[in-house]
Amino acid sequence: MSAEEIVVAYHERTKHHFHRFAASLGYMDWATQPDPFRRYDGAALLRLPLPKEGRELPYWQLFVAGSVTPAPLDIDGISVFFRYALSLTAWKSAQGATWALRANPSSGNLHPTEGYAVLPALEGLDEHPGVFHYAPKEHGLERRAEIAPRVWTELTRAFPERSFLVGLTSVLWREAWKYGERAFRYCQHDVGHALGAMRIAAAALGWKLRLLGESDSVVSMLLGVDRDAPDASAEREHPELLAVVTPGTWDDPQELRLPDEAVRDVSAGRWHGKANVLSPVHGVEWPVIDEVARATANPGTAFEDDFSGCPSERDVFESPVRSGSFTAERVILGRRSAVSMDASTAISAATFFRMLGRLVPTRGGTQMPWDAIPWRPRIHLGLFVHRVTGLSPGLYALARDAAKVEALRAAMRPDFLWQRPPGCPGGLPLYLLEEGDCRVLAARVSCGQDIAGDGAFSLGMIADYLDGLLVHGAAFYRNLFWEAGLVGEVLYLEAEEAGIRSTGIGCYFDDPVHEVFGIKSRDWQSLYHFTVGGPVDDARLTTLPAYAWQP
User: Most buried among 115, 137, 304, 534, by the most CB within 10 A?
Assistant: First the structure.
């Protein structure tokens, strides 16, 4: 089979159906539960200074290009970046069990995503450029490899001065342990969430972040995860992505590639540390995950999408958002996944429109975080609206790219209304499809989870799926999930800003979701669900500070 055929077969195989779920163990094998924290034994740990609390930057300002004065690239800036992107945000305790929450959300709180940085020499961190692994439990960087100054200069020659690289990998076993064959999907969701968290962290410092189109082999070589020894006994990390972080504004219309020779020089250098073993034994393995991982290997992808036809900020919001309730710090570090909804909280239509407006890239592709990815939207929303004041309950659709409205309309039920909701901004491609109470329906197609019907609204993320694979190849399967995770990350933060909560839903019945919207073609596939509303807190849980030295 071709790589694209392997991807399609995997996706069909891992669908949940009313009469059967995708293959998994079916119970929690606590004896093989993986360690949530990867460490490199023998690598020097350089603790980052914990940023002082109380940064007054308003949340809304993150989305206003050029409004945040760029912070210097120093150890304090790097500390804030990782604190907002990938750090612990709290510990929870109940009935003798303790677990950590993080800034970047994760399916089942399993956190398969590992973060890396390729940094210049920084005072207080290291006198040499190097490759570092981020250790969230310690809020520190583990030095994996030193980079000669000459090699660093060559590696970063295409970037503005004081730029650096960040990378993400996935430990696929961490998700497979619980979720079986569907785990590859969830790992890719988490990469998208982490990419969004990093872009938002960069925005809080006045920095830009842009995804690079590097191949998996380059990611592996540069981050050191392609090495068989001395890490052969530890769980392998699957290369995901590299991104460049730059200070201030930077126009980069040309395709960017890291110089091959410089990457090889880094890879050939001296590496430090041995990856810890996360599970002493693995029990059941899931070969189909390795198969789809190989099929979706990125050979190096260039995108040439044109964002000039996107709406302006004023078109999407009518009145640009220049006020809000909370600071960026409060929203980012206060983000939590709701475990249940109160089935009563409603939101205003204005809040609903603002949330959705944040999901639509604006003209030139400049709206954060959509400026981090170089392709036009291929994730659109099928919405179940329950409690939005001023709007009729029912099914709605948001085309995140207005150019896809007619294609979506042709793919869905012919009797849908496709009416513009009252008060909806002209540049927000939102449509009422069908009026009616859809709370039970939303819960039913989300694996019977009441949380999908008890919020103010829930949604399925409908991907322009087969065309994406045909245009960009099998590797784009991962990109579709990354985009879905980015959508979810924005919804998480927007819910916090609105004083409510949200949560991602990975368990849903794939084809029944398509039937709700009348989608019969495999061209369109639901890749992720989400729900937003008034949370119900669990009084049995005790919350502890993220770090022992934090007051």
Answer: 115
